[in-house]
Write a structure and sequence with these properties.
The two termini are 22 Å apart. This protein is of the alpha/beta class. The chain folds into two domains: 222 residues, TIM Barrel (Alpha-Beta Barrel), CATH 3.20.20.70; 77 residues, no CATH class. It is globular.
Length: 317
């Protein structure tokens, strides 16, 4: 596969502008190193790791690849200081932050020579990330899995809006699993893509096999944005979601919803494989997935599909 050069590939030192999202319960060292070895950028998902577990995964990733990789850190995580300390102590070069104010950590990380990218759901937040000193932004549309923007702006609208709002590189996320989708968002102003759902359903993801099967068995309409009173999250519909839906329809308070949610609900579903009572976070693009390949084959397939579509822009069929 031929390589490609733009601001995103140069920023991270990677071959292809394809980034694997740092998803909770899915993005461990096996997945991150496999994507990085294939020429993309692998990310560890710190949101489901205790600080010492994150340290172990960073060290295992370093042992498994000599290529660049990074860590995704949700800024709302209660042990955020310990996570950041581990990241700096272990010499991680790339950090993606999400779910919080980028001003809090960006300058501290950049003082250590770390490249910082922040995930945003609007052009307003993209500007704030740029002002905070971020090197790039991930603009994530409403289609995405997991925690989502309250604005519910779709990727097709969000990418050109963010591209026009900032000068730093824009990485598109939300609803992207193929090379043709990658070409579409790059035509709108993105310089790379971040894919979550596609990499959840691959061999190296640490997500449970039953969750992977549920993802590839899903069709349009099987995911929905829920828990908007707390933090909006896109879920596969199951018994747990129906409990939430029932409570919300009766006007449940935020505290009542928290009580239903309980603790470790995402771990129960995505990592332990409880397809009925677990919180199953996944994007709308799961409807297009029908296999569980190796991560390297995903990178190759997306890049080949992108290159073919780019060479024949009017001949997609």
């Amino acid at each position: 596969m031929s390589s490609f050069e733009n601001r995103v590939t140069k920023l991270f030192g990677i071959q292809y502008p394809i980034i694997q999202a740092g998803m909770i319960w899915a993005s461990g060292w096996r997945l991150a190193s496999a994507v990085s070895n294939a020429g993309g950028l692998g990310l560890l998902g710190a949101g489901s790791m205790y600080p010492e577990v994150l340290r172990e995964h960073i060290r295992k990733t370093k042992a498994a690849t000599g290529k660049p990789f990074g860590v995704n850190v949700p800024l709302l995580y209660p042990d955020i200081e310990k996570h950041m300390q581990v990241i700096m102590e272990e010499g991680v070069k790339i950090v993606f932050t999400s779910a919080g104010n980028p001003k809090t950590w960006t300058s501290i990380l950049k003082e250590k020579g770390i490249t910082v990218v922040h995930v945003v759901s609007s052009s307003k937040f993209a500007k704030k990330a740029e002002e905070a000193g971020c090197d790039a932004v991930v603009a994530e549309g409403f289609e995405a899995g997991g925690h989502n923007g309250r604005e519910e702006t779709t990727t097709l609208v969000l990418i050109p809006a963010v591209h026009d709002a900032v000068k730093i590189p824009v990485i598109a996320a939300g609803g992207i699993a193929t090379g043709r989708q990658m070409l579409a968002v790059m035509a709108l102003g993105a310089e790379g893509v971040q894919m979550g759902s596609r990499f959840v359903a691959c061999e190296e993801a640490s997500s449970h096999i039953e969750f992977k099967k549920a993802v590839i068995d899903s069709v349009e309409g099987d995911t929905i944005l829920a828990l908007k009173q707390l933090t909006p999250v896109r879920l596969l519909k199951n018994d747990f979601y129906r409990q939430i839906e029932s409570a919300e329809s009766k006007g449940a308070s935020a505290d009542e919803l928290k009580a239903i949610l309980g603790r470790a609900r995402a771990k129960k579903g995505m990592y332990e494989g409880d397809m009925k009572e677990g919180e199953l976070e996944i994007g709308q693009v799961s409807a297009l997935l029908n296999d569980i390949p190796k991560a390297a084959d995903i990178v190759a397939s997306v890049w080949n599909d992108f290159s073919t579509a780019l060479a024949n822009p009017v001949n997609f069929h």
